Amino acid sequence: MPVTTIAWDDGMIRMIDQTRLPGQLIYLEIRDIPTLAEAIRSLRVRGAPAIGVAAAFGLLLAAEQSTATRPEAFFDELQETAELLRNTRPTAVNLGWALDHMLESVRAARAQGVTAMRTALRQKAMALYKNDQTVNRKLAEYGASLIPDPAEIITHCNTGALATVDYGTALGAVFTAHAQGKKVHVWVDETRPLLQGARLNMWELQHEGIPATLICDNTAAFVMARREISLCIVGADRIAANGDTANKIGTYALALAAKHHGVPFYIAAPCSTIDPAAASGEDIPVEERGADEIVNGFGRRTAPEGARVYAPAFDITPNELITAIITEKGVHTPPFTSSLPSGQKTLD
Ligand code: MRU
To answer: Is the pTM above the cut of 0.90?
Structure first.
């Protein structure tokens, strides 16, 4: 990809405003926490790994701007900022995972004073940034090994470079298969209501020169009935210890259709998306979005005033519908309780 989704740039966060794609490629320059929190909430930056790194950079921003001179006061400020950022999007566990890594590093440096704490935060933020790049390449290799040649692939929501620091997860596997010379064609769910598939996947796939066809989400089952589909591959926002997976609303319906048609259904995500504290999908908080995204999406009213709306941003795909979960550690097959790594505690 010739673009950088997010970067730390001399005291500020530079990121693509994904709400403006595909029409405009605009970079935001974020210099304060309220602006960052708004950017995460309104999906200017989105995708579980990307918002994890955005939050880590947020703590760095808070640390650089803090006037606290005592370690305790400095730490309390950071903790407050971390809690604010943690609550911006409740489902993607990478957000809390990255913040916990940052807080842990600053806690460990407490005895050495504020300057050392700042240095520790800077190092950890950069380590998280690099870690995302390396794990994506690794898991994309594992994912590509499951993609036959030729392949007809269905995907849902954006999981490419825009959803991560670089390259992507599920879409990364497709990029790698394509780079290996495999003949791949992607059926792209448009991903209602905010169209991450139509706006972002199609944009990325076009950049990579990968053949792709856009479909409405409710067309996927019919495509499986009428075409020889090789596999579905999607990302994740949180994976429970038993493999139940939270991902963009519509993933569960896609998995059900895949099961019915005998199409393998893969989840591709870094270990940082595994939440060992969630025993099953029941323990995963599901974010609900405002009605406006459904009834007034992109500035056009599509339902009468006063229409009651239910708008979960994610759904939970039960583990029995998942053929395998791909991480940077390999391809994990059921039973996931014993095959899944227990989350990413340390950075490689
Ligand atoms: O609401 P979004 O766009 O942040 O939802 C994103 C997804 O559901 C992705 O599939 C998931 O975060 C994985 S991104 C590599």
So the answer is: yes
